[in-house]
Design brief:
Elements: H1 4-7, H2 18-24, H3 28-42, E1 50-56, E2 62-72, E3 76-80, E4 82-84, E5 88-90, E6 93-94, E7 120-122, H4 127-135, H5 141-150, E8 153-155, E9 163-169, E10 173-179, E11 189-193, E12 197-198, H6 201-219, H7 223-236, H8 242-253, E13 261-266, E14 269-274, E15 281-282
Antiparallel strand pairs: 1-2, 1-12, 2-3, 3-11, 4-8, 5-6, 5-7, 9-10, 13-14, 14-15
Helix pairs in contact: 2-6, 7-8
Length: 283
């Protein structure tokens, strides 16, 4: 984090996009132009192109994933997602060939509730195939395509994500059932904004790192800097003209305990209060 964060008083100027500008080196206007240019370029990517995108879980769990373009829309693309091919074998039967419910069978003699009623094993690849799979670098689209061509990975739409459970019934015996967890979902496709897909893994990595840098820059602000930053952000989205924004900003920054100020929109204007108080005040 640059030392100027704590020493430079430039934060007193109106900068609602301060963290973004410091993290990316771009203004919001410059970034908008960059995104428009990227969207125009990505619209021409042919169907079947492998691209990277950011899979977002919250604001601080962004992972780089990839997919193959299968459809274009004005502002988004649809990507086909892939996963490792099925390798499970149940009692000598490939998992995909196993019925959803096997016929009932008699429980074995001296059976108890901890008796293992089926055997799960996995396909064993020859050493040369294992070595080839381990050598593939999924940050390179050509290696991803090679894995698809060799059948090491397949579309998620063709994968059975169920698991095996044993069902035991009095007078009938037991059987194996394929079950899926109620909250388990493996989407076969992803729909991503056209300006948020990347043909180069490094570009996706840079996009993610800029996002993290913005969050970390905010985390390293002093309490006063954070308070001023929040005031600026609220004012930037208000309906006030620039003159009124600066008037309201001057009023708020002139108050005691700026760090404890909360703001909200009310009937087209802005109200404020200290966080320990219940009463909201008009400006």
């Amino acid at each position: 984090m640059p030392e100027k964060l704590l020493s430079d008083k430039a934060y007193l100027s109106y900068r609602p996009n301060w963290a973004f500008e410091e993290a990316t080196g771009r203004t919001k206007e410059e970034n908008a132009e960059l995104l428009l240019k990227k969207a125009a370029e990505n619209r021409h990517l042919p169907i079947g192109t492998i691209v990277y995108y950011i899979e977002k879980r919250g604001d601080y769990n962004w992972t780089i994933n990839w997919g193959k373009i299968i459809d274009h829309y004005p502002s988004v693309v649809v990507l086909e997602l892939y996963d490792n091919r099925e390798t499970r074998i149940v009692d000598g039967i490939p998992y995909d060939d196993l019925p959803w419910r096997t016929p009932f069978k008699k429980l074995p003699k001296k059976w108890s509730y901890d008796t293992k009623l089926y055997n799960m094993s996995y396909v064993e690849y020859p050493k040369e195939i294992k070595d080839e799979m381990d050598s593939l670098d999924f940050s390179k689209p050509q290696d991803i395509q090679k894995a698809i061509d060799k059948g090491y990975i397949v579309p998620k739409s063709k994968i059975d994500y169920s698991h095996i459970e044993v069902e035991i019934k009095r007078n009938e015996g037991y059987r194996l059932c394929k079950k899926t967890y109620q909250d388990e979902y493996h989407p076969p496709t992803a729909t991503e904004k056209i300006w948020e897909i990347f043909t180069d893994y490094c570009d996706a990595q840079k996009y993610r790192e800029e996002h993290y840098a913005e969050i970390n820059f905010e985390a390293n602000m002093t309490d006063y800097e954070w308070a001023v930053y929040q005031i600026d952000r609220v004012l930037s989205t208000s309906l006030y003209d620039e003159t009124r924004k600066m008037e309201v900003r001057e009023i708020l920054l002139g108050m005691d305990k700026v760090e404890d100020i909360e703001m909200r929109f009310s009937f087209g204007g802005i109200q404020w209060k200290y966080c320990d108080n219940k009463r909201w005040n008009d400006i």
